[in-house]
Amino acid sequence: MTLYGDKRLSDDRPTVQVTAVTWPGDEEPPGGKSAGSAGGLRSRRVQLLLAGVLAAAVLAGIAGVGAYAYAGDVPRGTTVLGAELGGRSRADAAKELRAELERRAATLNAPLTVVVGEAKAEIMPADVGLAVDVDATVTAAAEADAHPVSRLVGSRTVEPVVTVDAARLDATLRKVLGKQGRDMTMPAIIFTGTTPKPVYPKPALSLDPDQSVQVVKAGWLAGEPVTVPVVEQAPATTREEVDRLVAELAEPAVAAPVTLTTDKGSVSIPPTAIARALRFSADDAGKLTPRVDVKRLRSALGDKLAKIEVPPKDAGMTISGGKPKVVPGRAGQQVDTAALGRDLLAVLPRTEGRTVTGQLKPSEPELTEEKLATLGIKERVSTFTTRFPGGLSSPRSQNIIQAAKDVDGTVVQPGETFSLNGHTGERGYAQGYKDAPVIVGGKLVPGVGGGVSQFTTTLFNATYYAGLEDVEHKPHSYYFSRYPAVIESTIFWPDLDFKFRNNTPHGVLIDTSWTSSTITVSIWSTKIYDSVKTEYGPRRNITKPKTVYLEPGPRCIAAVGSDGFSQDAFRVIKKDGKVVKREKFSWTYSAEPRFICAPEPS
């Protein structure tokens, strides 16, 4: 403490008073004693003693200043949001900062006004995760300035560390943006036949998530309305570049055929096949890149590749002597698709020299004997049979058997989804199917492939009682007594399909067999469940059929009619003696009219 006049000033910094001393070796003032005298020696001893005391005092002062400067974890003079955190431990600083946040709670928790384009809205800070990370802020404050002088006399303001859920904030702001925003129109070139059509890019009008985060954080702390920038993002490929790709690649690509030559012969790739295979794809930034889709090229060429390639054949299984037996697969020889796509793309811009050389490479089957042996197909887990009239000579019966032949021996691997439409493809005359009654427009009419729905129902029930996952099926509009109610399925190319997924860790083999009046589908795999059964609810909402007179002729098919009703069926699956799954299937059948092929009586 130091006195100045009448004022008493306090200063908690250490004060060192220094008096004048004469160091050893200084000359004696005039009239003093000589250096060699006894008094002179004592004088030098006193001087040395005073120097030592002085040095100790200075060092003590420096130590005191250092202790003062480094007291606490946070440098003195450090504030956050106006709260003095300097000289405090981290724990005390965090406590003080939380107290300050509590004092500001009304402001920090208040709705935040945001302006996005021409729209204005209020968002709640908590809804987008706006908060001050106290521990991270204290850490930043403690590391603000480690220089000793700065820690002693400096002052500094540290910005708080603010957190926000960027994804939730972006979703919230995009709702405010609404119809003001627009998606980027990606550049493209598409073919109509063999004519390329450009799709020109248009920029997106949207939000930049990083910019949004920064302005919202700052506005929230300041308690002020926030203007969120709406940015325009142009695709990487320009309109001019699209036109250049059309002129330099797309148009010359389909101007003439390309010849594919191999050691086994040549194939002409026509412009129609090129147009189907040449794809222009834009990435997320809108950069347009051409490529040849060799899978589409193969499809477009049809059987042309058959004269130069030998396709691989997957290993399969058949039932022999009541047990599954592996049927070996076969390696093939096919054109190297990666090289073909690259080389074909290189010659498409040319008007001359439109020839590519294809390299034939060994092609292994996807399903090998070794892999098939690990799938656990060892026992029959379900079987289902339905009956059909007319013997094997009727077109309807022949369609049922043709579908059974197409599916017989199919192996569905774990996790794979089987599609009946996808497996058979279109069921037309070329595939061996014939005209038979189908339901179209609420009545039976002749149609190619009629009767396949009976095979579909049989397959559905076999997979149903194997406990496999039902993905897609649709029961008939009318109830037919030859099928189990509700647990049945129709099919119609290409709109109605039947699909199931192999949701087991084992492979599934579909085995089909038939007689002159029955069709049977069995599922072979590894048995997982004790039992799979169906429990029916009562029929309800029963409706009676009407009588409808139709114009007689070859396309008129009479029907006796049937009641309509609603019903529930429950698939009950047991394992280890307990019910592990109970699935509900419901359907409402319309009453099938009694169709009479005759003029309506007057």
Automatic annotation (TrEMBL):
Domain (YoaR-like putative peptidoglycan binding): residue spans on this chain: 246-355
TM region(s), chain numbering: 48-71
Pfam families documented for this protein: PG_binding_4 (PF12229), VanW (PF04294)
Keywords: Membrane, Transmembrane, Transmembrane helix
Source species, domain of life: Bacteria
Region (Disordered): 20-39
Annotated PANTHER family: EXPORTED PROTEIN (PTHR35788:SF1), EXPORTED PROTEIN-RELATED (PTHR35788)
Stated name of the protein: Vancomycin resistance protein YoaR, contains peptidoglycan-binding and VanW domains
